[in-house]
Amino acid sequence: MTNKNPYIPMPVKISRIIDEVDTHDIKTFRFEFLNKEDEAGFKYLPGQFGELSIYGKGESPIGIASSPTQKGYVEFTVQRAGAVVPGMVTSALHEMEEGALMGIRGPLGKSWPLEYLEGKNIVIVGGGFAFTTLRSLINYMIYGKNRERFGSITIIYGARNPGLLLYKDELIEWGKRTDLNLNVTVDKADAAWKGREGFVPAVCKEVAPGKENAVAVICGPPVMIRFTLPVFFDLGFSKANIITSLEMRMKCGIGKCGRCNVGSKYVCTDGPVFSLAELDNLTQEY
Amino acid sequence: MLKKTAINKISELAAVLMEKGTLLAPVKEAAGFNFREISDAGQVNLHFHNTIISPKSAFFPQMEDFVRYQTGKSILEAAPVELNLKPVFLFGVRPCDVKSFEIMDIHFSGTGAVDPYWKKRREAATIFGHAFDLNEAADPAEFYHTLGIGAADPQGSDIFMVTKDNDLLFKSITPKGKKLLEELTMLTEASAGDRKYFEDYIARGHDYKTRFASVEPKAIATEFESIFDNREFWKNVSNACLSCGVCTFVCPTCYCFDICDETLFNKGTRRRVWDACMFTDFTLEASGHNPRTNVYQRLRQKICHKYSFSIRKYGVISCVGCGRCTRYCPVNIDIFSIVEQAVKAKWYKRL
Amino acid sequence: MSFEPKILGIACNWCTYTGADLAGTTRLEYPQNLRVVRVMCSSRINPSFIFRAFQLGADGVLVGGCHPGDCHYNTGNLYARRRLAVTRKILEFAGIEPGRFRVEWISASEGNKFAEVVTEFTRQIKNLGPQNKFKISQ
Amino acid sequence: MTSSFKSIEENLKAEAGKLLESGRVEIVLAYGRGYDENHPMPFVAKHPSDVANMVFNEYCIHNLARYLVRYPRGTKIAVAVKAADCRAVIQLIQEEKIKRDDVVFLGIPVYGMKNPKTGEIIDSKTTCGMYNPVLYDVLLGEEVHGQKIVSPYDVLADYEAMDKEARWAFWKKEFDRCIRCYACRKACPMCYCDPCFIDQSKPRWGDKSPQSHGNLMYHLTRFHHLAGRCIDCGECSRACPVDIPLYLFHKKVAKECEEMFGQAAGMSIDDKPALVNFRVDDSDKILE
Questions:
Q1: Which among C51, C55, C133 has the least Cβ separation from residue D168?
Q2: Is D222 part of a structural domain of the chain?
Q3: Is residue D261 part of a domain?
Q4: Which end of chain D is more exposed for a tag (fewer CB within 10 A), N or C?
Q5: CA gap D58, D38 in Å, rounded
């Protein structure tokens, strides 16, 4: 994208919409590029994000939920925002139908540190809606020969109730694999739920992944992070080996507009992926 | 190359430049001077100290249109707005403001993604720098000297102008400036006396003191980092702050912007518009979370961005001491007083 | 072609809007220039509606509410009276002809009055000509 | 002739010191040193030792009522108020943003205040033209008597005499200069909405870019929101970096409100703001 204007979105078609949860406010959108060269230029890795762009509404930075191993399309899982600030883009997106055209800019930001993760035991901890880029990472790591590049993979994923779990079909597929230690939990079970019940931090403690040669990748709501981190500290994980993804208001996504500035970093270009050790060096304003 | 003309013939020069392209020069308006596109050569007025809005608006206008679209129509019909610029002559820029372009270059085109708008506008422009009048007292708000910028520094300009009695001397600094100066046949050759005067003037510019003694810029970043969490300090210096956008809008090195879709009668434009870290909703996320809800956090962001983050990220202080923020602050907050206090903050023990 | 003004009507649900209905059902004739928006009470009208209407090309704005004392919510129109009086003064000082903005109290039974007011106001706006001050050019 | 600024400063320091010492208030809002004599700043004293840094001179024009709503409800605050500032505090009490019991009015009777940008005396031109605070707990000087009383609305005469075309041309030109820095609303003691209507995205009342239509919407609506509430301190106009004479419009609206509703803003804590009030016998004439 060197010669292209980085502010102009590429046209895409919504080829599929998946209603993910019972509350119908989280949907996964599958986009196909209209121009082949755009698709070829959109080289991304798990953890990066894109700006979903609808003219007349604006742009919204969203993590990429698909894995680069899934060819021919990209997926974004989007929650309709608007509890406090009306989410213009996400509301409009939720009204759209398959076949509609819109725009994407990206890929933006830094990915999960795949090279660093190679050869290590990976512990993935996700909570609620923040599971999207972790899903990308998991699908990337378990794809074909990629799996050999990583050690054991432990997944701990929680939602408030069974109806709010994302990617239900994939969870079933992952559960069948022997090379994954999948732990899905809900805060509150319903009659049909046969899995674990309990909060993510408690499940982490129970599963107790070993710290040896291990990296924890954690994404979730602030309250989950707050109670999960101490568990990993107790397990002996160092701050350099706990990795997370920041959320910040972004506009341009390319480090120009100044909005996502935290200390001397821009979340959009220097992040959104940071290790806790890196975050410690940042000013605490995010 | 050094050339000259009489100051009262400035409108003739303006007319020539207007024929060659777009001329942006100081114009006297109700509240003071501002750089404007000149439509009448008589408007150019060099009897100014400095403009209200900095000349950054020549390269980074308050509104920059990206795309025109129509609601209800396909994205494929949206049309990017192409910048087709004639040569631009930015006339009468003060040395401190010239320096600001260099700092903004690092941000917009020197690191990471290249901002095509800034780059194109910058390439289209020829800058006529203009020394401050050394016989006039410095404005109390200014402090460019403190930041190592002389009142008559020609670096960064393509052509640099110095006033000598009733004449205006022009010296080419860059090849681009030299080429233009050669084309400006209405200017006359300067004498040897003029040349000496010019060189002396530039040297004198370094002795032209603005209000503060020099400080060590490199030390400042560290100082600010060490007091970032000193909430008491920041609350104290921001007690008066109204959290308006004046300081950032007049600043030559503030670059934050918003990207807005503005639609009327089904026709719209996606454009960038200046934004300010001092506004309450600057960091408000769609989730409702806002990491900077207090005035002190926003003022701290603004000052640390210029005097600490920028040094760490780009290696320069993102401030040129033009004094605009201080001059136009409704409650007289002075950025450099805060910097001074911060440097002393090690000893600043407040309960 | 003669000038056909665009007039925005904002009518309260309980009186003026019902009055307009009555004018319609009794087949009273009045000009077609008025487009009516129904609100629950004249006090619901944000003055910005009126500024915005003028910006988006209205040549006149007519507000209709219950007669003072008859408000469905007891006092809504009494607040509205003060507020809209200020709106009028602001428009006037900004340079908009005051005749372009009118507030009328029209009850549910006054179909006749509704037709008369609309007729008279439309004529007045026609005399004033197009409103080009606030109007945003397309 | 000017007020004795020095003695006001002395009194201010003494009273502020006493109030902080006794614990009657937690905060004193007053004026402190700026980067030079002509540029004093709003100043917050929290300790008796802070009062030494207070100043008062003819450039202490800021309306400190602006800062009252920044502190949590119930904070005991003493605030130095000139006549217009005092009316702003009263208006805030009327609007129940603060409680009378939480505020100590340090009244400053004064004339000859100057705008540091222009050096002109602002008494009735851009402020309400009163010299003595209408309400105070402590008076920091002698009441001003014998000064010429000038109606604050006199400056409007030229504009009221313009025909509507000229007035529109005047305001269009002024509003078009607006750069939307929002200094006016931030300097205004009565502008405390969060979020401000112009920052809302649903509905979006005006675009963020500084174009004619958005500027017009922002300013007219702001004038409307301040109708019957503006106490004519003139801070909006002085805060404006491009010198838009907002005070003229505010004065005009205040004048009309006073004529229509028989009440000026911020004159008594027992009043109700004119636009959240009504009289059954309000005349329909006001709509004509």
A1: C133
A2: yes
A3: yes
A4: N
A5: 8
| C-alpha distance from residue D280 to each of B86, B113, D61 (Å) | 65, 65, 40
Picking from D153, D163, D171, D220 by the largest number of C CB atoms within 10 A of its own CB, the best residue to mutate is D220
Q: Does residue A9 contact residue A52 with C-beta atoms inside 8 Å?
A: no
Q: To the nearest 10°, the Cα dihedral for A258, A264, A270, A276?
A: -130
Number of domains in chain D: 2
Q: Is the per-residue pLDDT at B346 higher than 60? A: no
Give the span between the Cα atoms of B56 and B322, in whole angstroms. 13
Q: Could you tell me if residue D207 is inside a domain? A: yes
The residue from D139, D172, D198 where one domain ends is D139
Q: Do C94 and D220 touch (CB under 8 A)?
A: yes
Nearest residue of A to residue B307, measured between CA atoms: A264
Same domain, D162 and D273: yes
> Which string of DSSP letters, residue by residue, matches D79-140?
EEE-HHHHHHHHHHHHTTSS-GGGEEEEE------B-TTT--B-TTTTS----S-SS-SEE-
Residues from chain D that touch C84, judged by Cβ atoms under 8 A, are 287
A153 DSSP β-pair partners: A122
The reported pLDDT for the residue numbered B348 is: 40
* Residues from chain A contacting residue B255 (CB–CB below 8 Å): 256, 258
Q: Are the beta carbons of B249 and D241 separated by less than 8 Å?
A: yes
Q: Is residue D164 located within the same domain as residue D277?
A: yes
- Domain assignment present for D39: yes
DSSP-derived secondary structure letter, D150: -
Per-residue model confidence (pLDDT) at position B350: 36
Superfamily name with CATH number, domain C7-128 = Lumazine/riboflavin synthase (3.40.50.960)
Domain residue ranges in chain C? 7-128
Chain C positions in Cβ-Cβ contact with residue B263 (cut-off 8 Å): none
Q: What is the DSSP letter of A83?
A: S
Chains C, A in contact: 3+ Cβ pairs under 8 A?
Answer: no
Strands (E) in B199-329, as ranges, are 257-264, 267-274
For D243, the domain range is 154-287
Give yes or no for C132 touching B (CB within 8 A).
Answer: no
pLDDT tens digits, one per residue of B6-60: 988 899 999 999 999 999 999 999 889 999 999 998 999 988 999 999 999 999 9
Q: Does the predicted TM-score (pTM) go above 0.90?
A: yes
Which among B75, B282, B284 is the nearest to A101, CB-wise?
A: B75
Q: What is the pLDDT of residues B230-285, one digit of tens each?
A: 888 899 999 999 999 999 999 999 999 999 999 998 999 999 999 999 998 888 88
Considering D104, D139, D174, which residue would you say is the last residue of a domain? D139
Sketch out chain A's domains with CATH numbers. 10-108 (2.40.30.10), 114-245 (3.40.50.80)
| B264–C contact, CB cutoff 8 A | yes
Which whole number is the average pLDDT over D115-137?
Answer: 85
Q: What is the mean pLDDT of residues C26-46?
A: 94
Q: Does B137 reach chain C within 8 Å, measured CB to CB?
A: no
Do D12 and D107 belong to one domain?
Answer: yes
Shortest alpha-carbon distance between residue D179 and chain A (Å): 19
Residues 295-314 of chain B whose Cβ lies under 8 A from any Cβ of chain A:
297, 301, 304-305, 308-310, 312-313
Q: Is A183 exposed, middle or buried (0-12, 13-18, 19+ CB in 10 A)?
A: buried
> Does residue C138 belong to the interface with chain B, where contact is any CB pair within 8 Å?
yes
D249 φ/ψ angles, rounded to the nearest 5 degrees? -70, -40
- Rounded to whole angstroms, what are the CA distances from D113 to B103, D36, D123, D142, D249? 41, 17, 6, 16, 22
B123, HSE (Cβ side, Cα atoms, 13 Å): 10
* Mutation choice for D interface testing from A54, A59, A85 by most D CBs within 10 A: A85
- Are B65 and B56 spatial neighbours (Cβ–Cβ below 8 Å)? no
